[in-house]
Amino acid sequence: MYRWKNRLQLCHIIFLELCQLTWICLPLSAQDSILEPLCFPEQSTDGPSLHGPSSELLVCLFCSESVLLQQKDFLLKHLLLEHKMVIADVKLIADLPKYMLYWKGRFLEQPVTDFCSVIKTNSTGPVEKQEDYFLLCDVLPEDRVLREKLQQKRLEEVLEQQQKERDDNSFHRLCMFCSEEFSGNRSTLLNHMAREHSFSIGLPDNIVYCTEFLDALQRKLDNLQCLYCEKTFRDKTTLKDHMRKKAHRRINASNREYDRFYVINYLELGKTWEEVQSEDDRELVDDEDDDWSDWQAHPVSAVCLFCDHQSDTMDQIYTHMKEGHGFDLLMLRTELGLRFYQQVKLVNFIRRQIHQSRCYGCQEKFESRADALRHIMAEGHVMKLPDASAWDQPQYYFPTYENDALLCTLSDSDNDQSEEASHGEDVPVIAEDMSDLRALKQSSVLNQLLKNRSSCS
């Protein structure tokens, strides 16, 4: 169990720390580029959204191109296609306009290679077909410091706003459930809804931008949408009965739309409220022997390579692909002697080819994904793989679908661990330093801010 979890952590570190970007895979050509994050429909791809609408400008790091902050995806595509630049974890940057301005100045002073990791595509192909892409991420100490400073400034602004709302006695609003009118402090309305209607969005002191929060909830109710399951109903009576009978008088904690309204989301750089709340004081106890006896794995909900079928265990998904489509990944692993990361690249290669309506066996292009799949089945190309040089490429470390749970079910061959120790692939891995969790917590942005305030007072 420990070895499996360690492998899963490696997979998570590589994919999320290096690949959770504004793009999913490095394009071999503009025609085959996948510029938007792909995600299986049953899960949300959105991370915490801590920024409200803004009319600020985002400037390109290398040229005069600029767009409004709301149109950041266009600029990120421009950086990728025109300058081969990728910025990691964009959604976790507290102030993206200032971040971009800072690095634009630094790139004018020094070459981009002084700061960025370089990823070479088609590394085993002809030199003229190889391309270098640049990754700007917080592995670089200067980038990490910049992100922390922007995070701290954002935290100061949020705490200041929260204090204003605490002291504000001009609040005036109707209850969403009984239309009773409340004036004075916001806590009177929030406490009323929690006490009389069993609807609580949290303690008033944990909330910021409260008026905007209540406006968002009211819009959902006005649109006849349940606040918890977010289903839409035909009239208000049906909606109220549903929320009462199903005990859905609460918000959907998985909806990232609400993250910006809770102070906890601003406290730790790169962490959501779920991650902060899941931290337990027991983690701070020094225990040399890791005990995984009570650890339980969540269902993976892996999606088939060829259809929309999902399974909760790796045995089920492997059996479905073998019996339903004639694709035996375990046999390929054994026959070809595939190591773990080679399996990762093969799965990502097949995913991308099918997404682009192309047969991965013969490379024939089709009008639609369905046509490509019919061809693969009819021509018996399910188990036909191209030469390894076509898929055993660095760009296929990057998942085609960022929530592809199938990647987490991949297993090693029996001698994989010894092979990796002796001549493992040069895979960039960012280690998680868990040696001193207490010191890590004490060095958080929030603690630093509170210390600074104490010293000033």
Automatic annotation (TrEMBL):
Stretch forming the signal peptide: 1-30
One term of GO molecular function: zinc ion binding
Domain of life, per lineage: Eukaryota
PROSITE patterns: ZINC_FINGER_C2H2_1, ZINC_FINGER_C2H2_2
Domain C2H2-type: 224-253
InterPro entries for the chain: ZN622/Rei1/Reh1_Znf-C2H2, ZNF277, Znf_C2H2_sf, Znf_C2H2_type
Family to which the UniProt record says this protein belongs: Belongs to the ZNF277 family.
Record's protein name: Zinc finger protein 277
Alphabetically ordered keywords of this record: Metal-binding, Signal, Zinc, Zinc-finger
